[in-house]
UniProtKB/TrEMBL annotation:
A UniProt-annotated Pfam family: UFD1_N2
Low complexity bias spans: 137-157, 178-189
A GO CC annotation given for this chain: VCP-NPL4-UFD1 AAA ATPase complex
Natural source organism: Astrephomene gubernaculifera
Protein name (database record): Ubiquitin fusion degradation protein UFD1 N-terminal subdomain 2 domain-containing protein
PANTHER family given in the database record: UBIQUITIN FUSION DEGRADATON PROTEIN 1, UBIQUITIN RECOGNITION FACTOR IN ER-ASSOCIATED DEGRADATION PROTEIN 1
Segments for region (Disordered): 35-60, 134-192
Source taxonomy: Eukaryota, Viridiplantae, Chlorophyta, core chlorophytes, Chlorophyceae
Location of the Ubiquitin fusion degradation protein UFD1 N-terminal subdomain domain: 236-312
GO molecular function, one term: polyubiquitin modification-dependent protein binding
GO biological process: ERAD pathway; ubiquitin-dependent protein catabolic process
Amino acid sequence: MFSHDLNAAAKRLLADQKARAERERQRLEKERILAERQKKREQEREEEARRKRLEQLEAEERAKEAVYEEREHNRGVYLRVELQALPADEAAIQAKGVKRSKDKLILPPSVGADLMNQDASKNGAMLFELTLPRQPPTTVSPATPQQPAAQPYDQQPSTPHSTPGSAARDTGAGPGPGSTTFPSSSGSGRTHAGVLEFTAPEGTVLLPRKVVQSLYGSLDAQPYGTVVVSYRRLEKGSYVRLQPMCHGFHEAAGEGLREALEGELRGHSTLTEGDWLTVNHGGREWPLRVQELQPCAAVSVLDVDMAADVVPSLEAEEYLRRWEEEQRRQQQRLEQLAAERQQRVAAEAAKAAARQAAA
């Protein structure tokens, strides 16, 4: 009896020892797994940090290369600044009799000083590229001086866009002016301009109406947020293709088409593909879109002799598109009716054959 109790106690002791040993093994295994996971997470964090550092270095290198290439293209001049966009007081500008004022910016004095330090005037007239920032617009620093109360643009009536076309006429029977309206064209977020003076409050740029329309892609746009202003040296333009917004521009301009276009271009320093121009003729404003430029997508129009084509208007294109769609629908309907007729004829022939066979 006593021996049996000792054996049982020994077995229990051995079982307890095995259980403790198993628990200790499991604890050590768990700690090992946790340590490996922690080490893996740390390695992943280090790898992610290393990857981000490399990406940052590569981005900085690309930015340096871009600045170098831009400076080379601009013959030693580099300027890129983000400024708060405000409308220019065009009535006051026109009262001064300034030439080519339709696309001239008013920039802050610090920008003028920067360009003067780089001797930018050696390249001739100062021209700039304006783009919308990729990031959400930033606010002007509180230290920025008070912004002037600039006159807002007059809201012009929303008229259909006309498209310039070949120097030929706007052919084809199209709807009359105002019969078709078009949504505001989505802007490319990019245009070019000259400079009027360097008197804008620091941190701001004053934009004329043409620049605002072209930059934001709408005829009734108002400036908002910030824009990126970059110095650019542009090639002289040799060719422009324009498209009126409304049907009837060619007829209204008549033989004075060339003079009307030349008069409008004399108000500009630059042109960019996608820009909006406004030709005043016959007591009406005719919006035209810049469809194509040569030799580049953005050119200087200072002291140049450009060839110009005016293609059929957007209204005429829309009318033709709808007519072609209607013709396609009618053709599809005719084909459907012909197919149904063939099916009926085949069915009647089959019935007749069946009756003859039964007889």
